[in-house]
Automatic annotation (TrEMBL):
Residues 1-19 form the signal peptide. It comes from Anser brachyrhynchus (Pink-footed goose). This is Cytokine like 1. The gene is CYTL1. Keywords: Signal. It holds the Pfam family CYTL1. GO terms for biological process: cartilage homeostasis; chondrocyte differentiation; chondroitin sulfate proteoglycan biosynthetic process; inner ear development; positive regulation of transcription by RNA polymerase II; transcription by RNA polymerase II.
Length: 130
């Protein structure tokens, strides 16, 4: 009986450990990946509006300080307001920007400020993920 109670206590502790709330960093990281993937899907979609091709590139590396400028520019881009997917993507980008500059401001560490890396990494990000 003691063995069964010990096992239940151990499993309960393991479940509680996994149920910990996400950190600021993990939230920013997951949202940036979600935005990057959504942008790739939007770019490759056959049903996408022609204005989608004119959108600025959107590859997000949250360790690059230039990502803040990239997010701000993408949200402020004046075209494609009528495309629902673009509006949703802009809203996610706005949320990520807000999280990064206010809620997580002290928790994030930028390892680089190479803005050109955010322009050229759309093609190479697939190679990195593999």
């Amino acid at each position: 009986m003691k063995m069964l109670l010990s096992l239940i206590a151990l499993l309960s502790a393991a479940l509680l450990a996994r149920a910990a709330p996400p950190t600021c960093y993990s939230r920013v990281l997951s949202l940036s990946k979600e935005i990057t993937e959504s942008f790739k899907e939007l770019q490759t979609s056959k049903a996408a509006d022609p204005c989608v091709e004119t959108l600025p590139r959107l590859y997000l590396d949250i360790h690059n300080y230039c990502v803040l400028t990239k997010l701000r520019d993408f949200v402020a881009y004046p075209r494609c307001e009528r495309v629902v997917e673009v509006s949703d993507l802009k809203e996610k980008a706005r949320s990520l920007y807000t999280i990064m500059i206010s809620y997580c401001r002290r928790d994030l560490v930028f390892l680089t400020d190479d803005c050109s890396a955010l322009e050229n990494s759309v093609e190479t990000s697939d190679e990195i993920d593999s």
